[in-house]
Amino acid sequence: MNIKGLLSILEKEYDVYRDLNDLALKKKEILIQGKVDVLDEIVSAEQSCISAVSKLENERECWLDGHSINSMEDIQKCLINTDDREKLSVFQDKFRKLLENVEEANEHNQVLIEQALQYVEFSMNLLGDALTFDDTTYEKKGIEKNSSSIFDKKI
């Protein structure tokens, strides 16, 4: 069995995941710097990469279905050439490490986003509390005047 078609698809998919990893690392720096406008661009690029991965996954599944293969073990059993086995094994390890890096970067970015949201919520609450502070004042005629908050409810 010739796995060059499968390796070609996997290499393209690897390249897209490498791009996703690079974007995740850029996103980390942007989240730290607080550049929200650039964050939109990165999210858009990530969506393009995810779309490309989806297409490549469909191609991979079609290739596997066309060769009646259900697992990596099936591929290993069908390969007679030890060079092809070695290539596939090396590529599999390389791909696994990349996916672990992408997952780690995304988890780190999720923590940064949650911290940013907590800070925003804290700031909103602080502003709301400052504006609703019970600082009763009196108008000219001696009538109490209470201040009201511009933040009436949480969203």
Question: What is the gist of this entry?
Answer:
By secondary structure, the protein is mainly α. The protein has helices at residues 4-33, 36-66, 72-78, 82-131, and strands at 137-138, 144-145. The chain is elongated.
Oligomer: single chain
Coarse structural class: mainly alpha
Number of strands: 2
Topology order in helix (H) and strand (E) letters: HHHHEE
Instruction: Show unreliable segments.
Output: none
Q: Topology, pairings included?
A:
Elements: H1 4-33, H2 36-66, H3 72-78, H4 82-131, E1 137-138, E2 144-145
Antiparallel strand pairs: 1-2
Structure notes:
The mean pLDDT is 81. 76% of the residues lie in helices and 3% in strands. It starts with a helix and ends in a 10-residue tail after the last strand. It is elongated and about 95 Å long. α1 (4-33) runs antiparallel to α2 (36-66) and α1 runs parallel beside α4. The chain is mainly α and 155 residues long. It has a two-stranded antiparallel sheet. The chain has four helices and two strands; from the N terminus they run ααααββ.
